[in-house]
Amino acid sequence: MRKIEHIGIAVKDLDLSCDLYEKLLNTACYKREEVASEGVNTAFFKTGENKIELLSATNADSPIAKFLEKKGEGIHHIAFDVEDIYEEMDRLKKEGFVLLNEEPKTGADNKLICFLHPKGTNGVLVELCQEIKLK
Asked: In whole angstroms, what is the distance from residue 135 CA to residue 54 CA?
């Protein structure tokens, strides 16, 4: 793992939260995107090398909706940038971590992603991210 890629924050209202984070971070949201396969709308902010991803549910069955119902708004996950997501997934499986998906998925912000089960990471949802290289 090379660095923290971003911190994901679950929010109930993406528009209101974008306004709040634009004021808080003194920068505009640089990208909004829907990830239909995950039932989520995202908004990204960057200050220096740091990125924040706001996540809101698009339907009541999405993982974010369930998170919000159970825990309320707040930090949802921490994402780490990896050079080769397949190698990292294989390494972590061999170390005994449980992956929430066996193959990387296409996520927001031009990334391949995979999540680790929080039961094996002291309750923290960990995401692996690899930049999709455009040809």
From this structure: 28
CA separation for the pair 38, 22 (Å, rounded): 25
pLDDT in tens, 33-62: 999 989 999 999 999 999 999 999 999 999
The two three-digit tokens of residue 6, written as one number:
């971003």
Count of H-run helices and E-run strands, the chain:
3, 8
**Residue holding tokens 């974010």?**
64
Which position has the token pair 């993406």? 14
The rounded Cα 11 to chain-centroid distance in angstroms is 13
What residues does 51 pair with on adjacent strands? 46
CB atoms within 10 A of CB 67: 19
Which CATH code, of 3.10.180.10, 2.60.120.10, 3.30.70.260, 3.40.50.150, is assigned to 3-131?
Answer: 3.10.180.10
Q: What is the reported pTM? A: 0.91
**Torsion angle of alpha carbons 129, 132, 133, 135, nearest 10°?**
170
